Amino acid sequence: MVETLEQVPVAEDLFRWSGDGADLVGTRCRGCGAHYFPKSLSCRNPQCEHKAVEEVLMGRRGRLHSYTVQSYRPPALFRMEPWAPYAIGLVELPNGLRVMGMLTGCALFDIRIDMPLELTVEPLYRDESGRDVMTYKFQPTAEGTA
Amino acid sequence: MRPVYVLGVGAHPWGKFPQKPQLQLAIEALSAALTDARLGWRDLQGLVAASSRFEGGMGWGLHANEVLQAVAESGVPAVNVGGGCAAGGIAVHTAAAMVASGECEVIAALGAERMPKGFIPRPPGCPDDITDTDYLRWVTMGATNPVYWALEARRRMHEFGTTAETFAKASVLMHHNAIANPRARYRAECSVEDVLHSPTVSDPLHLLEICAVSDGAAAVILGSEEQARRLGVPKVAVAGSAVATGQFGDPAVRIPTVSTTVGASAPHTSEVAGAVRHALDRAGMGPGDIDFVELADNTAWHVLAWPEFFGFLEPGQSDWMIEHGQMGIDGKLPVNPSGGFLSFGEATTAQGVLQVCELAWQLRQQAHGRQVPGAKVGLSAVLGLGANGASVVLKA
Ligand SMILES: [Zn+2]
Q: So where are chain B's domains?
């Protein structure tokens, strides 16, 4: 008998994933078209009087704007097991948003600014109920830029 | 609006003082500033305090009313201002406005802080969901504050070819300036090698390129021209001051958010850029009129980037300035002759008040061992959590 491992997101309503790939859940202003992540209450553009936002999926592809390698283990609210130094990237999306997220699928010394990336979802740790707790990450893609 | 003058300044040394309550730090700084102004507690007609969230009376941190009730129950107005680490600058600006409007003849602005050990905890009552980005940044990726600054530093290296050595030199300069400053916490010379051999916290930033947290307190007494003349204190005027908030499209990813909507129109670190621009406008000055700056150097990256963001230097020019000693006390644009946050450690809400104290000491030619020669005009710039910025221009 094969046991199906349960996977839960590290935070609800932040990203979605399936066999087809992963998406970030954000909002887009119905008036001016500005995008926000995570979901926003309102549009923040001071020139926009519409303000109403709708949920949109985004972030499948992007380009690395900058990155850093975390050498120290962050405080306990962050769980990652086993822990090892890891990279956090700032990723520019085609809709004008820049989003921070962990980088994966790339040796730390191979990370290059402007490299094309795609969204993925990976486990951070296994919780006390035996479920894998998942977060969104960006990984290099061989196919051109977004 | 009438002119506003600095009547006195005072600060408690920065460091760790586990035996001293925050209130005592506050009272000592305020007492020093009153003595400097040749005034007594009975002369204060108002008190504006930068509210800390970490400690103090009624659950919202240090507040002006608590200080007055502890040391002078005079019935004068107490104003408490928030704004994260910018609160000190906001307090000075608010106090200046209360003198300029004619409401007060003599008023004090105050900041005092005892910082918690280690990582700063989230405030109580925050939701554990996507509506709280401070929660998200931790659980999704463990983004510490240095991560945000490191992303900026790495990008600068990409755009301008800034080297690890240049970042290190900025930190070396801050530590060098502090050697003669009796209120600085770290007063030892350090070398580029020391900086580069200190542990890498968030690549490319090393431990000695990131400010620590400290306890400290500072106070500024402001008053009318008549009071300045009557007291015979050195004439230092508040030429301009401003408070600002972040602008839509600012490319800075703000702590503790996890994204930014980038637009073409907003300057980087727009809450501080906006405050600096308005403070200069109100002073009727431009960046070229400023003899030195005191800015919030949470990291070595800030020392390089901020003078460029705020129009004092061209983008990428800071590297040359650092390499040629031009940000030093005798340079073209002295940056943080006090030694800055890197030498003091950050006592959050007190920091913006301390910056204004340093401006005054410099303009009165009292900054012994770190005096900017012939300094006539100085500008402070400070950033606070939640997209708050403040800037003060003093003129001798
Ligand atoms: Zn809009």
A: 5-117+215-231, 133-209+238-391
The parent domain of residue A95 ranges over: 60-146
Strands of B207-297 (E only): list them.
215-223, 237-245, 259-261, 292-295
Task: Round to whole Å and give the CA distance between A14 and A11.
Answer: 6
C-beta atoms of A96 and B251 within 8 A: no
Q: Residue A124: closest CA among chain B residues belongs to which residue?
A: B140
Q: What is the pTM of this model?
A: 0.96
Distance CA B167, CA B304 (A): 8
For residues A39 and A95, membership in a common domain is answered with no
Tell me whether residue A91 is in a domain: yes
- Around ion ligand 1, residues with a beta carbon closer than 5 Å are A 29, 31-32, 43, 45, 48
ipTM confidence: 0.95
Measured in whole angstroms, the distance separating CA A73 from the mean position of its chain's CA atoms is 20
B5-117+215-231 has which CATH code? 3.40.47.10
Task: Flag residues of chain B having pLDDT under 70.
Answer: 53, 56-60, 118-121
User: What is the nearest CA distance from A130 to chain B, expressed in angstroms?
Assistant: 18
List, for residues A69-105, the tens digit of each pLDDT value. Answer: 999 999 889 999 999 999 999 999 999 999 999 999 9
Which residue in A17, A90, A109 has the most chain B C-beta atoms within 10 A of its own C-beta, making it the best mutation to test that interface? A90
